């Protein structure tokens, strides 16, 4: 985000705020740290947060979410239920108390297909495990880049590749307003998804997972381009990057 620290000084929880502006401003107190970097990109911001945080457990916040008052007890209970967990994912509700998306009713261990549905504000991570694995967000993906989506999926897929354990807990920890309108699926959208599939699977046998994912994308409404055009843009995106 591109903010000054004023609006964050009175938070009642320990917080690290990463700002993306040219000021180079830094500020810290017992439970608050503000650091600015002259760069752009959501994944870069998250990586700076991982690098500079000293907490044991961390959440990824956004400027339009509200965390539950019983957040800490739910997180503690989740890690108590799954002591081997390195990352937990929870549920989002709308401000009116409705589920933000369709969720499973029971806890489960994530696999390579279930991570497709995870949003960043649902994630709770053990920072020491991320740092031990050298796990970071791919800075080619996310808002502010040529591929403005898919960073959470890549992050969680990389976590699985590094042997980290990821579990879903069917508890609400955050509220977020529903998007007011459908996302427009244009050339950039499909190029981004093609690049995402290349990054996740390369040309490995697991590429079939990406093909299945792309078929679902092609069947979605609100496309501003034809199916054939969508396929061509997806292939362009697939060929535009390496999977490293």
UniProtKB/TrEMBL annotation:
Gene3D superfamilies: Spore Coat Polysaccharide Biosynthesis Protein SpsA, Chain A. This is Glycosyl transferase family 2. Pfam families: Glycos_transf_2 (PF00535). InterPro entries: Glyco_trans_2-like, Nucleotide-diphossugar_trans. Keywords: Transferase. It comes from Algoriphagus yeomjeoni. One of its GO terms (molecular function) is transferase activity. It comes from the Bacteria. Residues 25-102 form the Glycosyltransferase 2-like domain.
């Amino acid at each position: 985000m591109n903010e000054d620290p004023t609006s964050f000084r009175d938070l009642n929880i320990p917080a690290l705020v990463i700002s993306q502006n040219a000021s180079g401003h830094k500020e810290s107190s017992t439970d608050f740290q503000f650091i600015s970097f002259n760069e752009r990109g959501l994944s870069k911001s998250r990586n700076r947060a991982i690098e500079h945080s000293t907490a044991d457990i961390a959440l990824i916040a956004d400027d339009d979410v509200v965390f539950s008052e019983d957040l800490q007890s739910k997180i503690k209970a989740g890690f108590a239920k799954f002591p081997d967990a390195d990352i937990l994912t929870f549920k989002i509700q709308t401000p009116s108390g409705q589920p933000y998306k369709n969720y499973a009713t029971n806890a489960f261990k994530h696999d390579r297909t279930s991570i497709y549905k995870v949003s960043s504000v649902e994630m709770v991570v053990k920072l020491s495990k991320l740092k031990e694995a050298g796990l970071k967000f791919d800075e080619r993906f996310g808002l502010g880049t040529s591929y403005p989506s898919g960073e959470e999926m890549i992050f969680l897929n990389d976590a699985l590749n590094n042997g980290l354990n990821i579990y879903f807990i069917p508890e609400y920890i955050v509220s977020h307003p529903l998007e007011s309108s459908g996302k427009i699926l244009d050339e950039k959208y499909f190029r981004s998804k093609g690049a995402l599939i290349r990054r996740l699977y390369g040309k490995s046998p697991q590429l079939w997972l990406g093909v299945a994912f792309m078929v679902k994308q092609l069947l979605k409404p609100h496309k501003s381009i034809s199916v054939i055009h969508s396929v061509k843009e997806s292939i362009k995106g697939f060929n535009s990057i390496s999977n490293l």
